[in-house]
Each structure stands twice: as C-alpha cells, then as structure tokens.
Amino acid sequence: MATEDDALEAFAGESQANRKYLAFSEKAVGEGFANVGKLFLAASEAEAIHARRLLQVLGAVKSTATNLEGSVEGETHEYTEMYPQFVRDAEAEGRMDAVMAFKHAMKAEEVHAGLYKQAVEAVKSGKDFEAQTIYLCPICGNIVVDTVPDKCPICNAKGSLFKAVQ
C-alpha cells in the first residue's frame, strides 16, 4: 500500500530530521548563536511531532507490554547483529571514531534491552518499573537506575555528567 510505504518513509525522515536539528541547535548555541539554536530546537520538536503522528498513522503504538517486547527485540538485534557488523566494517576501514561510537551504542543497547526486559516483567504483573530515578549518560547513552556510578562503565565519563530523566 502506497500510503503505508509513504508513512514509513516520512517517519524515517522526520525522525532523522529531529535528531539532526537537535544536534544543529546544540552546535549553534555552542558557537554563540542562541536564537539560531532556538530555531533549530523548535524545528527539532516540530519534526518529533510529525514522527509521533506518523507512528499513530502506522498503528505502531500498542500496549505498553507489547511496546516493551518490541523494544527488547529491537535493542537485542542492534547489540547482537547490527552493531557488531558495523564495528567490523569500521575496523576494516580504519575508522576508529566510528568503531568507538558503534561500540558505545552496542553496549548501551544491551543495557537498554535488559532494562526493558525488567520493565515488561513488571508491566505484565500489573506493576510499574521500579526506579526512584533514571539517569542517562550524555556521552554514550548508557542508562542507570537509582545510583550513578563514579564513572560510566561503557565510556568512562564522569558520573557527575549523568542527567536525571524527568
């Protein structure tokens, strides 16, 4: 069906634009262009709105348990199949910057899958995921629950850099 294919392509484009514009916003602010940063940030949020609406069009947002199960599957694919191949490709090309980015993502995806597994078990038993605070490493994307380590076990970033997720 053309509409579904179009919605899938639009979702991919909107999602990528969201992340790209967020990165552009951070760069502009870092270079002293605060209003350009705000413009990119607004556009980033607009693209996120579009992407969420397209997920609804695609019927991709299901029950929380189903969403968690699909997330476990996706994250597991990434850390067991996708990123290991990407690491090999980057190593073969001598792209150590990419090797590091892929390895950090691969290790973080494994953590994500484990946390999603815990969450799906809780949800299926009628409970919420147990966590006082969830923290995110802004360098590699590692997620920790309740206690921030002195250093990130994936990228060695200082624990003080972790951000509490609100």
Automatic annotation (TrEMBL):
<feature type="domain" description="Ferritin-like diiron">
    <location>
        <begin position="1"/>
        <end position="127"/>
    </location>
</feature>
<dbReference type="InterPro" id="IPR009040">
    <property type="entry name" value="Ferritin-like_diiron"/>
</dbReference>
<dbReference type="Pfam" id="PF21349">
    <property type="entry name" value="RUBY_RBDX"/>
</dbReference>
<protein>
    <submittedName>
        <fullName>Rubrerythrin</fullName>
    </submittedName>
</protein>
<dbReference type="Pfam" id="PF02915">
    <property type="entry name" value="Rubrerythrin"/>
</dbReference>
<dbReference type="InterPro" id="IPR012347">
    <property type="entry name" value="Ferritin-like"/>
</dbReference>
<dbReference type="GO" id="GO:0046872">
    <property type="term" value="F:metal ion binding"/>
</dbReference>
<dbReference type="InterPro" id="IPR048574">
    <property type="entry name" value="RUBY_RBDX"/>
</dbReference>
<keyword id="KW-0813">Transport</keyword>
<dbReference type="InterPro" id="IPR009078">
    <property type="entry name" value="Ferritin-like_SF"/>
</dbReference>
<keyword id="KW-0249">Electron transport</keyword>
<dbReference type="InterPro" id="IPR003251">
    <property type="entry name" value="Rr_diiron-bd_dom"/>
</dbReference>
<dbReference type="InterPro" id="IPR052753">
    <property type="entry name" value="Rbr2/Nigerythrin"/>
</dbReference>
<dbReference type="GO" id="GO:0016491">
    <property type="term" value="F:oxidoreductase activity"/>
</dbReference>
